[in-house]
Each structure stands twice: as structure tokens, then as C-alpha cells.
Amino acid sequence: MLYLIGLGLGDAKDITVKGLEVVKHCRRVYLEAYTSVLTVGKEALEEFYGRELILADRETVEQKADNILKDADLCDVAFLVVGDPFGATTHSDLVLRAVKLGIPYRVIHNASIMNAVGCCGLQLYNFGETVSVVFWTDTWKPESFFDKIQKNKQNGMHTLCLLDIKVKEQSLENLMKGKKIYESPRYMSVNQAAEQLLAIVQNRRLQGEEPEVTENTHCVGLARVGAMDQKIASGTLQQMSTVELGGPLHSMIIAGNMHPLEIDMLKLFAVDKSSFEDNECQRNT
Amino acid sequence: MLYLIGLGLGDAKDITVKGLEVVKHCRRVYLEAYTSVLTVGKEALEEFYGRELILADRETVEQKADNILKDADLCDVAFLVVGDPFGATTHSDLVLRAVKLGIPYRVIHNASIMNAVGCCGLQLYNFGETVSVVFWTDTWKPESFFDKIQKNKQNGMHTLCLLDIKVKEQSLENLMKGKKIYESPRYMSVNQAAEQLLAIVQNRRLQGEEPEVTENTHCVGLARVGAMDQKIASGTLQQMSTVELGGPLHSMIIAGNMHPLEIDMLKLFAVDKSSFEDNECQRNT
């Protein structure tokens, strides 16, 4: 049996009781290690589980999946994923390959960023399409996510922005030389995401547009959701560009229309409560 | 401290290790018992936790919240919610009341139906607004959720349909007589939801519309997600009206545009694989 097990979002103890039992009895246990991170590392998990984990980077999962699935028809193998196995990143590929090989599988769910962001008070059923905000480079500054955010906002929906993670990336130089030397991991902060969005707002104005999303649009910045030291800040997009949220992982929400109860919740986390008394917020209620 | 603790979706062992530790040490532990159900009952939870739980029905949570929060500034109180405390139903009211009383709170997240439906292979970031499908009565047959589904579909998005739950409902007669006699709980099945949707499709045609959602639209029926006996079936809306999924809780997804990987996953659960080779599916890829 292949078990896909969600680890939740905070630390080692966020695994479910059922998930922990399975981890303890499996022959091999892999830890998916390229789409997200816990606030604790592999060693802390190994100590808590009392067993060794095998790190599975992108290459292993995408190109050597058969290693993971080896003998999984005869013994139990676990594949651990931060959050939920079908959350922000789905592991459909691995499931489809297992099924093709006649290996049964089971999913042990957990919280993922896709549902845990509800803790800010914005209601999950009022979210539209989720977008990914990628790190811009000197030569590549995609804006397509902005159009999706605007479309959601026009429909009154909130937008969850998943912020870029660069793990085990090679520099162009090392890539071309075929050197497997990796850059330090980089995690996009709410500040960086807000700055990119503000730049797009300016671009659109230069192009004669009047964007729906502006520096005054209500947003929520979230850091380390589910961890003991999680931080939530609500305010305008402009405020998000300077708010201090600490270490990774960060996510950001661009609010659509808000119910009074949602506004009351966001006020708990307001950078500046007066921003919830302006015209835009009133109009949105 | 007030702890809001998600129990996940299946049975007693779906609580997180952290959640279980908190449950064991709290002075009082409430079980929210009107918006969802686990496949196990209160007694099974009490046995697993080794302690007594206090059932909190809608009346207790909405009108007697101060009882729940009593002394929570001096001792620890837990409020258990099936799924996640900020999932399909948010408990913002309780949080706001706690904050007003100066009581600190903490959320221990878990899987909710809002993210666990990802197990069918449709990607969570491609979902639009979530809708609730309510039981029709002889005199009340709302159709507004259908317009939301159509809007999502026009935008290429999937729609999660949360299906009605009637717990502790009084008949009109008993309500008028002031008798606190409650009807048996009712949980809407995928069959019932599909039948209501098919009726709306017919209504719209009678009104001269050509609805975007038809009997041939791809759907997913899900039952007891996260439990050992969960069932998933994919097929047309017409097929959903007769598919056998067993006991509650059920949810349904109306698919929008599908990525080839999403189609491959849905084929695993197909009532009839040939339905994935028709024109609509090809057009959607």
C-alpha cells in the first residue's frame, strides 16, 4: 500500500494520530521536500517519529517515482507531504503511476494552506481561483496572475496568492555548465509580493487602464500559518509592502467583497484599524 | 485559552497529535455538533480521548457562547469542530466574542471538506466560489446556487457543492406549538443534489435558456471523504442522479475546464469511462 500522508503546516505534532501510526509501521517513509517546508526540519521529524526518513526532492518524485513505489504492492510505503497531499501541490502523478502498477493507495488528509487561511476570518467559500505569484527576474516579469485577481475581485471573490518558493534551483551559469550546485532556498515574502503587485498597478495605469485592484485594496498577509508563531496582518496593498511578518512561509490574500463578520475578523489583525473605515470597505460590505 | 480544534473528517484518530494533547489537558471540551458529523459518534471520541465531551448544538454556540467561554481566561477550554474550525463553517462569532472578553485563542487546524475534495484529482486552485445546495420543499425551490455554478463554469472553474444537513430541525407543527421535538437528521445525497440540478436544467430550458450546465456536464460525487470507506464516483450529472455512494456525508463537484492530468484522475473513479471521451470533455481540455 502507498500512503500519501499530510503533515499539516506547523511542526512535527501536526501529523494526525492515524498518520503517525502509519509512519511508524511503514517499510520506507519518504518526505517530499520541494513544494513546502515545515517550521521544523527533517531531523526533528525523524526524532519525533523515531525512524529514518528519505528526502524526496523534485527529481526523485518526477523522474525516479518507481524507486518510491518499489515493492509497494508487497509492503507499506509512506509519502509525507507538508500540508495535504492534494493541497496546493497535487501528487496525482504518483497516484496514477501507483494505480498503473496495481499498487493500492490511501490518502491521510491534513490541513493545507488552501483551507487554513480561513483562520484570518475570510470565508473559504468566497474565494475564487487561487493564483501563484512568481519571483520576477530582470527579463521575466509575468503579470497574468494580476488579471486573475482582478477577475475574482470583479466577481466579489477573495484571491489566495501562493508565493514563490525556490528550492534546489541552479544558477543559469551552473545549469549550463552542468554543475549540480544549488542556490540557497528563497521564499517570497508578503512584502515582495505586494511590491510586485504595486508595480503592476502602476504599469496598468501607464497603459491607460484603471485597475480594480489598487494600493488601497484590502489584503491579508499570513506567515507560518498553523505554527505557534504564526502572524496575520490585514490592511491595504500598500501596507502589505512594508508589514513585518518574519520568516517563511508567507501567503497573501486579496480581499473581494466582505461580509460584516469578515471585516470584524480582519480588524483583529489590522495594521491600522482606520483603513477599515474608508470608502472602499464600506462599498464592499 | 480557548482552543478551536479541527477533528478532520474520518474517525477519532484523524485528530492531530497536537490537538489530542490539548484535548487531554483542557478543563472543558465542547463538541460542535450541528454543521457536520464524523463517521463515529460522541461516545467513540470520548473513549479515544479518555474524557467526557460536552455536546454544543447550534443553540448553545449561537446563544449561550458565554457558557462555553466561562473562565477561559483562567483555564483552558477546547471547542472541537469536525473538519477545520475555519472550513465550510467558520466559527468567527466565537472567536470575536472571546477576543472581546480578553480571552486568548489558538486554532489547531485539520483537513476540511474544503481541501480534502482534492483527493478526486481536480486541482484546488481551479475551484471558484463554493455553493450550498439546500433541500427543496414543496413551496421553496431556490435556484440561486445554479447561477453560481454556471458562472464558475463559464470562467472554467470547478464548483464544490456542499450538500444540506438538517439536524435538530423541528416540524412546522411542533415549532408553532413550541414543542422541542426534533425530526430525524437528514443528509442530502449526491443523487438528491443531482436531481435538483437536473430539474433546474429543465426549468431553464422551459424558460428558453440554453444552460451551460446540462445532464452531460462532468461531475464528481464524494461520500465520507477521509473515512476508510470513502467513495468517489465521476461521471455526468445524469449519472450522479443514480450512482450508489452509501451513507452520509456527501459532496458533489461540478467540473469546469479540465487539465489532462485531472481527467486521468477522474477516470480512476469513472462510473463509465466512455463518458470521458465525449465532445464536452475534449472541448474542456
UniProtKB/TrEMBL annotation, chains A, B:
Pfam family, one: TP_methylase
A GO BP entry: protein histidyl modification to diphthamide
Gene3D superfamilies the record matches: Cobalt-precorrin-4 Transmethylase, Domain 1, Methyltransferase, Cobalt-precorrin-4 Transmethylase, Domain 2
InterPro entries, per database record: 4pyrrol_Mease, 4pyrrol_Methylase_sf, 4pyrrole_Mease_sub1, 4pyrrole_Mease_sub2, Dphthn_synthase
Keyword S-adenosyl-L-methionine: yes
GO terms of molecular function: diphthine methyl ester synthase activity
NCBIfam families for this protein: dph5
Name of this chain's protein: diphthine methyl ester synthase
